[in-house]
Design goal:
The protein is an alpha/beta fold and about 200 residues long. The protein has helices spanning about 5-15, 40-50, 65-70, 90-105, 115-120, 135-145, 170-175, and strands at about 20-25, 30-35, 55-60, 80-85, 105-110, 125-130, 155-160, 180-185, 190-195. The protein has one domain (about 5-195): Vaccinia Virus protein VP39 (Rossmann fold), CATH 3.40.50. It is about 35% helix and about 20% strand.
Length: about 200
């Protein structure tokens, strides 16, 4: 855990409405639903970072920063760590970056469409959390693989694989076709936890 203040911030965000909000980009016409992770998911994200020893994490779908903070709370102060998180809405991205800066946590919020942002990233991620548009999970995964940002040993985590299964069906089929070691945790929304071929 980083600091008591950071631990309080997820507790505060958890107290907010879980109903989410719709959004629309008038320039592109893109629209979607920004929905915070459910209360049964945050602790699991924290535990996965602790258990996997992930030091470099990518989150696709920032929303209001709740899941990012749960992931960060899996680290201890002084760790050489970094979390990159992608948020489509520029105004939301700026507000979340300000929150992370105020808390002093190693989080960088990248604004833009996920696959376009992925094209700008470099290095290797130990853990990736998918939680943006469900029908884009596979496209985003393939972009990460093409850029060699993930590989053997990378932990893959994806939310909403039960309640919105039809939307991410191609992603779910990919993990079967490629024999990805995985388990679907029966949270309120369904959380897939998998690992690319072990090192």
């Amino acid at each position: 855990m980083m600091t008591p203040e950071i631990d309080r911030e997820p507790a505060y965000l958890e107290s907010l409405s879980k109903h989410g909000e719709s959004y629309r980009d008038e320039t592109t016409g893109r629209y979607g639903w920004r929905n915070p992770i459910r209360r049964d998911t945050g602790g699991l994200l924290r535990a996965l970072v602790i258990a996997s020893g992930a030091r470099r994490v990518l989150e696709i779908g920032t929303a209001h920063g709740l899941s990012a903070l749960h992931l960060v709370c899996g680290w201890t102060a002084g760790d050489d760590v970094r979390l990159d998180t992608i948020e489509f809405d520029v105004a939301v991205a700026e507000a979340i970056q300000a929150r992370m800066d105020r808390l002093g946590v190693p989080v960088h919020v990248c604004a833009g469409e996920a696959t376009e942002v992925i094209d700008t990233l470099s290095g290797h991620y130990d853990l990736v959390f998918f939680d943006a548009q469900k029908n884009q999970y596979l496209r985003q995964l393939q972009a990460l693989l093409d850029r060699q940002l993930i590989g053997r040993g990378t932990v893959l985590v994806a939310d909403n694989v039960i309640d919105r299964q039809a939307e991410c069906a191609d992603f779910l089929q990919w993990r079967i076709d490629h024999s990805v070691l995985h388990h679907i945790v029966p949270t309120e929304c369904g959380l897939l936890v998998g690992q690319l071929e072990r090192p």
